[in-house]
Amino acid sequence: MISAYDLNEMWLPLSNPPPQYPVTAVTLQTLKSSNIFVSKDAFTCEKLMLIIQGSGAVRAGMWARALCMNESLETGTIFNYLKQAKQENYGVVVFNPNLNRVPKKLDPLAFTRNGFFTTQKPKPLRRDDCEDIAKNSSPPEHVIHVWDEIVEKMCTAAKDIVIVAHSAGGYCTMELLRNRYDQVKQRVRGIGFTDSVHSVERNDTPQVKQFVMQN
Known about the structure:
Elements: H1 2-5, E1 7-12, H2 25-31, E2 34-39, E3 47-52, H3 65-70, H4 73-76, H5 79-87, E4 91-94, E5 101-103, H6 113-117, E6 130-132, H7 139-152, E7 160-166, H8 169-179, H9 181-187, E8 188-194, H10 206-214
Parallel strand pairs: 3-4, 3-7, 7-8
Antiparallel strand pairs: 1-2, 2-4, 5-6
Helix pairs in contact: 7-8, 8-9
């Protein structure tokens, strides 16, 4: 996405020092950061697209790993969205809601040549073996944090925002709407729920329900 689609990589929380490249597993474990990707015109565009993927092992820019391997990168990634957004003069913010924690201690066999060729099964990581990334410890928290720190504070020129929320990204979008309704209603024109996992709850406010129906 950086080379082919001219996106910048940003690391959250912003208070953390930027990593030295190339970024390795050791770097991530030390910095405790999550990365997102932002088009170079996102901070000046009047139109902005927010892309929020689903849950699982997929990272920023991917819809599904199986599609990438069994079909093509065109169907398994957001590349076509990036092309269309550029053609229609949209700035883009690519979220990364699944990178929420880093291991407290790296497996010595991981990310090494010996580890690649070993037949030994890796030790499964439990939640107690990991440390949460500040302000990004869950997918909804990540989405709200990116909205607060990137969209609201940096993408101030964008008056026409659309959201593409795929799979569990729909749930995260609903949590954003519930927690930042006043901001979202002023700037978001529409939400595309693609194969989405979301629902409008009985205890949602009438304003949230109306926004979903109309947008």
